Amino acid sequence: MKIIRLITSACALLVLLFFAGCSNKQPKVVIEAPSAADQKTTSNHTLVVFVHGTMLPLPNVSASFSSLKESLSHGRRTNKSWYQLYLDQLKTKSVYRYQPLGPEGLHKVTHQPAACIAASMFTELLPNSCSCYTFGWDGRLDQANRQQAAEKLYQQLLVELENIKKKFEHVEVLLIGHSHGGNVLLNLAQAEETHNKRLCIDQLVLLGTPIQTETAHHVAAPCFKKVYNFYSTGDKIQKLDTISTSKKSQRKLEQHSNLTQVKLLCGKKKPGHADLFMFGASGNWLYSKHLSIAPFPVVVFLPTILPVLDAQYAAAPSVLLTIQKDAHNLRFLFSDQKHSYTTTLDNSRLKKYRKQIRNL
Prior knowledge:
Largest sheet: 10 strands, mixed
Mean pLDDT: 89
Order of helices and strands: HEHHEHEHEHHEHEEHEEEH
Strand order of the largest sheet: 2-3-1-4-5-6-7-8-9-10
Oligomer: single chain
Structural class: alpha/beta
Radius of gyration: 21 Å
Strand content: 15-25%
Helix content: 25-40%
Low-confidence stretches: 4-25
Number of strands: 10
Number of domains: 1
């Protein structure tokens, strides 16, 4: 009888986990990407790319049936396994959809709601005009897969850069990787060493990236002009990966001249892994609703944060960034061993985005 009860309990838990994936609402409205009319008229332009992290196979009924249907309908015509089709479906049918991501490969942001919100905020807050892209990869917890993704991004990024450089006098490249998306981006250094196409990344931003011996040394590669490693001691996920690396993952990199490491606080709270890249919509059970920046992720404030780091802390090896909220503003407090600096963002500028996030 005891064995039967254990089996029954285990089955009940699996069923609950499976149907937990169904609780996520689909977007209520269509959120559009910024149009050309929204862009600033300037000769300087920034190419922004958002790269998501590992896609764990969360249980989800809708994704299960959709991937099964696609697998049966396409049969041998698809070179993807059912598992990979399932991961692809999770991008739009699970909690993963609350982050700026898109289909496989490098794509300009056009319709994915969370990516559109992020692109709109970058368009409004960046001093230059910008083009926002997502880079989708298979999301597997595997070192070789991340290297393959980097090779694909390298080739596609070179093509897109050539097209943009025909329209603007000066183009800067800002790459943003969340979690293992950061390791995908670090692997671009290996691709550049192999192909030597003179790819230059002006700013590489790592958000909660598990620092691993296999990719950490790429920070010093000449293709990366400046690297920012954002981390939080409240991020428990960042150090958990012992599967796709020979040693345990870490939060911080060894110091290099082109590197600034930024420790994050939201008021007195320490943001978690999801808080760095995912919007805190009502269906997002991974997001910490008590944060001072709620319902926004840290990533959308990079247009406010990076100019300060460039101007005030260009040579600083480490910076503490605290984001506080008062009645009228979000306050960004920067400090290192030498000096402190504060900038603000008017809450009224965020009101329309709060409404859009509620509709995700």
